[in-house]
What we know:
Layout (H helix, E strand, L loop, with lengths): L3 E6 L12 E5 L4 E4 L11 E5 L6 H9 L5 H7 L14 E5 L9
Antiparallel strand pairs: 1-2, 2-3, 4-5
Helix pairs in contact: 1-2
Amino acid sequence: xxxxxxxxxxxxxxxxxxxxxxxxxxxxxxxxxxxxxxxxxxxxxxxxxxxxxxxxxxxxxxxxxxxxxxxxxxxxxxxxxxxxxxxxxxxxxxxxxxxxxxxxx
Length: 105
């Protein structure tokens, strides 16, 4: 990939799966690309949430983590790639413990 130059790593001050994601500068279209990085470990402790009517990933993140922007943690832990996936009432969703989140190597 000769057209990708200046590899570097972004560093965020919050829990993010992109903390160790490499960034590249694409010289053909002058854009930066960020690669996908690590997934959450399956061994992270979690609780089971039984979905109620109108639950969404961001509403669950707000309820459990006091921050709706952490919706991706719930999606990632449940191996759901589409954050707009509609949860079904009665469905069981794993909610990982925020203070014990670990990423795969």
